[in-house]
Amino acid sequence: MSERFLLVKQSQPLHGTVELTGAKNAVLVIIASLLLAEGKSTLYSVPNSADVRCFIALMTELGALVHFDVKLKALTIDTTMVNSIEVSPEIMNKMRASILVMGPLLARFGKARVALPGGCLIGARPINYHLQGFRKLGVSLIEDKPFLSASISTDSSNPIHDRVILEYPSVGATENLLMYATLKPGETVIVNAALEPEVLDLIDILNKMGAKIYCEPGQLIRIIGVNKLNPVEHTVIPDRLEAGALLLAACITKGSVHLPNARADHMDLFLEKLREMGHEVYVGTHQTPLFPLLGISLKACQNPQGVSIKTGPYPGFPTDLQAPLMTAMALSKDISTVEETVFENRLMHVKELTKLGAQITVEGQKATIRGVEKLYGTELIATDIRASCGLALAGLIAIGETKIGGVHHWERGYDKLEEKLRFMGGNINLIEASNIDNLMLPNGELLKKRIA
Ligand code: UD1
Prior knowledge:
Layout: E1 3-9, E2 15-17, H1 24-33, E3 40-44, H2 50-62, E4 65-69, E5 74-78, E6 86-87, H3 89-94, H4 102-109, E7 111-115, H5 128-136, E8 139-144, E9 147-152, E10 163-165, H6 171-182, E11 187-191, H7 197-208, E12 212-216, E13 220-224, E14 233-235, H8 240-253, E15 256-263, H9 268-277, E16 280-283, E17 294-299, E18 308-310, H10 322-330, E19 335-339, H11 349-355, E20 359-363, E21 366-370, E22 379-381, H12 385-397, E23 401-405, H13 407-413, H14 417-423, E24 427-433, E25 439-440, E26 446-447
Parallel strand pairs: 2-15, 3-14, 6-7, 10-11, 18-19, 22-23
Antiparallel strand pairs: 1-23, 1-24, 3-5, 4-5, 7-9, 8-9, 11-13, 12-13, 15-17, 16-17, 19-21, 20-21, 25-26
Uridine-diphosphate-N-acetylglucosamine binds near residues 127, 130, 170, 198 and 342.
C-alpha cells in the first residue's frame, strides 16, 4: 500500500537566502474575486499548493478557462465563459475557502448555489457572519441540503441595509461581503472589518479592477458600488506564513536566513517576539532603499528565552504562526505561554510535540511550555496546515528522525516548503512510496528499511 509522509532528520544549522512565494491565503480569495470581472486576468507569484489547485478546479467547474504556468508562477483566468453559479460538495468539502465564491457570484449573477464548506478541523468554523452580513445587504438565503441557495432579494419588505457590523473581524466574512458590495448599488460600510494583509491585498486588486474601496479609521471599510469591474494583472503579496516558517527554521537550528522579498510590515508582532527571544532580526536591504520594510534577515541566538503570546486578529499575533512558534518555545529557556483566541481547537499539535519530549500542559485555550534542551524524533500526525509546519520544524532539531503523516495538510498550505528548507541545509523529504525499501531520497541518501 502506498504511504506518504514527511521524513525529517536532525539537521545542521540552516542558512540561506530564500525567495518567498505569494501568500496562499491571499491568492485563494483573489482568484475568487476575478469572477467579478468578465475577461482574462493574470496573477503572478502564485504558489502551487494543493489549495490553489483545488480553487483552480472550482473555477473550471464554474466555466472559467484557466492556465497555470507553474514555473513562472503565473495564473491566467478567463471568466468570460463562466456559466454556472453552483459549487459542488466534492469541491466545497475539500476547502473551506470555497465559500469565498459566494460574494462574487452574487455580485455578478445575482445568485449563487454553494455546498457548505469543509477544510481543516481546527474548530467548528461556522459561516454565520458571512450569512448574517449577506442578509443585511439584501440577499435571501435558502438551505437546500447540502446546498445553500442565495439570491438578491426582490422582496421590498426586506430593507437593504448598507452597514454590516461584524461581531468578530472574520477574515473570510470581510472578504466575501466586500467583494459582493463592489457591484452593489450605493454605499456599503463594513464595521469591525478584518484588516489582515491578505484582506488589504484583495482590496488592492479590486481597486485596480475599478472598485471604490476605502479603509477608514476604526476598522471600517467603505465600498462605493460601481457598475462594472475590469480584468487585471496583479502580483500577490509574499507569504508571511512561509516567511515565519523559514525564520523559525533558522531560529530552531541556530542558523541564519535572509528573505529578500519578505514584508516586515506584515509581521511586526511576530518579529518582535523573535527579538524578545534573543534572535537578531534585521529589516530592509541595501538593494532596495525605496522599500525600507522589504527584506528580513535573522541570525539565531544560541540560548533563546521563552516568550508569551496571545493570538488575535491582525495586527495581533497570527494564529497561523502559533503552532510553528510553539516548536521554538519548546526549545527555549524557562517558561513560554500561548493563548489561542481565534480558533477553539487549535492546540492539537501539543499532543504531537509532547511525543518528541516537549514539556507542554494545556488548560482550556492556554498552553504552558517549559523549555527542554532536546527533542527526540518519532512518528507524528499533522492535524492541520500550520500544525504540519510546527512538527516539521521540530523534526529538524529532534535527535534521530521524525516521520510525519497527514502530509496533505502540508501540501494544502505550502508550495514545496520542504525544498526551500532542504536548500538551507535541512534534512527533510516528502516521501511517497509503495515500497520504501532502498528508496533514494532527493539528496542522494538511501532510505533505510526500518522506517516502514
Ligand atoms: C482565514 C485564513 C486562516 C486564518 C484565519 C484567521 C484563509 C484561506 N484562511 O480563515 O488561515 O487562520 O483567517 O486569521 O484566508 N467565525 C465564525 N463565524 C463566521 C466566520 C468565522 O464564528 O461566519 C469564527 C471562526 O470559527 C474562527 C474565527 O471566527 O474562530 C476567525 O475566523 P476567520 O477570520 O473567518 O477565518 P477564515 O477566514 O476562515
